[in-house]
Amino acid sequence: MFSKIFLSRDNFLNNIESIEKISQKKTCVMIKANAYGHGEKEVISILKDRIDYFGVSNQSEALLARKYTNKDIIVFGACEDYRVCMLNDISFALFSLSDAKKIVKIAKKNKLTSKMHLCINTGMNRYGVKSEKDYDKIISYLLKNKVSLAGLYTHFSSLTTDREYTEKQKEKFERFVAKLPKCWETCVHVGGGRSIFEGIDADVYRVGLEVYGYGNEFVNPVLRVESEIVDIQKVYKGEHIGYLCGYTAQEDITVATIPLGYGDGLPRKLSNKLQVKINGKTAQNVGNICMDAFMVDVSKINCKIGDKVVIFDNATAIAPLIESTEYEVLTNLSKFRGERIIE
């Protein structure tokens, strides 16, 4: 394959070590959206002997992860088939009393163990139990049926932007934690950006972007995207390049074609903005990025077909160009069609 994603094993492990040195707690690494574009299989292979928990968004991601690890896997989105999760020893989120009744019924009928993590809606307003009254009903129901919670958790929405709102979320969550039955061994966990730095008491911290190398000075990006030149064209002054005549040559130029496009997760918004490295020199994208390729001006670069092209090695440099965040730059790569290689 011409295009490849390289993953630094050392950076991954060093990032985890740095995070846990600060938190002094266990880490749940989020591997949803194909591990933020890094590759679910590859990330698990690097971290499976280092951490105890992996977090995913849905059942399909969980079942794929189960092929590669026997560690605890937690589904944080809505679950399609609780029985399938139980059969595969997959933990899952609990959002309501009606969910609890359904889960307990399925578990009893099939003589299976359910590993439920109750989501507390402290202000994200996405999933979970919002009122203490509803919470009390769920706890009472589970106690009555001699079932316990594997976990209790919440998600902070504005850790980096709104201290006052974060404090309200924290205080509300602590009230729910305090009401957990003493007879249960329930894991308390939190997530949402920089939760490990906010003095929030928990047994486990769910970490996403920072594991992959962003959001703090003590972590380093794990991913590098590379491809190679597959064609070189001479373009004359006044000629157009790419779809919709996305670029018009102001002088005679030499253009190289790189076989990577928005079909692989390279945002089309980067058209005429993206800069790549070829033989240590910077080359500017010209023309609209295609589904399967893009072109760069190599008029001042000594290069040939087959030469390596570094697309990017730091999503922070790309995010402003598409008026977004590192999250979007990286998760776009979940559909990357090239090879992922662990270094």
Would you summarize the structure shown here?
With 343 residues, the chain is of the alpha/beta class.
Write the layout of secondary structure elements.
Blueprint: E1 4-7, H1 9-23, E2 26-30, H2 32-36, H3 40-47, E3 53-56, H4 59-66, E4 72-75, H5 82-87, E5 91-94, H6 97-110, E6 116-119, H7 132-144, E7 151-155, H8 163-178, E8 187-191, E9 204-207, E10 223-228, E11 231-235, E12 240-241, E13 247-248, E14 253-258, E15 275-278, E16 281-285, E17 294-297, E18 308-312, H9 315-318, H10 326-331, E19 339-342
Parallel strand pairs: 1-19, 2-3, 2-9, 3-4, 4-5, 5-6, 6-7, 7-8, 8-9
Antiparallel strand pairs: 1-10, 10-18, 11-14, 12-13, 14-17, 15-16, 15-18, 16-17
Description:
This protein is of the alpha/beta class. It folds into two domains: 9-207, TIM Barrel; 223-313, Lyase, Ornithine Decarboxylase, Chain A, domain 1 (Beta Barrel), CATH 2.40.37.10. It has ten helices and 19 strands. The chain has helices at 9-23, 32-36, 40-47, 59-66, 82-87, 97-110, 132-144, 163-178, 315-318, 326-331, and strands spanning 4-7, 26-30, 53-56, 72-75, 91-94, 116-119, 151-155, 187-191, 204-207, 223-228, 231-235, 240-241, 247-248, 253-258, 275-278, 281-285, 294-297, 308-312, 339-342. α6 (97-110) runs parallel beside α7. It is elongated. The two termini are 17 Å apart. The mean pLDDT is 94.
